[in-house]
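Example record

The entry below shows one chain as it appears in the dataset: sequence first, then structure tokens.
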Amino acid sequence: MDYKKPLPGIDIWSRPFWAGTRAGELRMQCCGDCRTIFFPPGPVCPSCQSRNLTWETLSGRGEVLSWVIFHQLYFKGFADEQPYNVALVKLDEGPLMYTNVVGTDNDKLAIGMRLEAVFEPATDEITMPRFRAVQP
């Protein structure tokens, strides 16, 4: 694959997340004590500091909280998609994540728009989660 956009680094904390995206799933950490589901992953729960953590497979559904449209080209890999959006999505299970909404014109984005995860292979190791509008 010839993926030209910036790629995330995979570390001990994020490896299960990226394994999930390769499998077509959104997986995030869940605290075994207070049941908070959180992202990005880390060594302790951000709510209660517990180390009793598991990985949960989420629904992959959520809604747009906010977004911005990039007209400036910061990375050459985005040239064919310009202008492109970066959206803040609130997942149904609670966590927030930044991503792109694909398959929808930028002028159609709206707060509260319902979304579902889709997965874009970038390399043999990394599959990027994106979101698309859920048809009513």
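Notes for this example: The chain has one domain: 15-133. Residues 15-133 form one domain.
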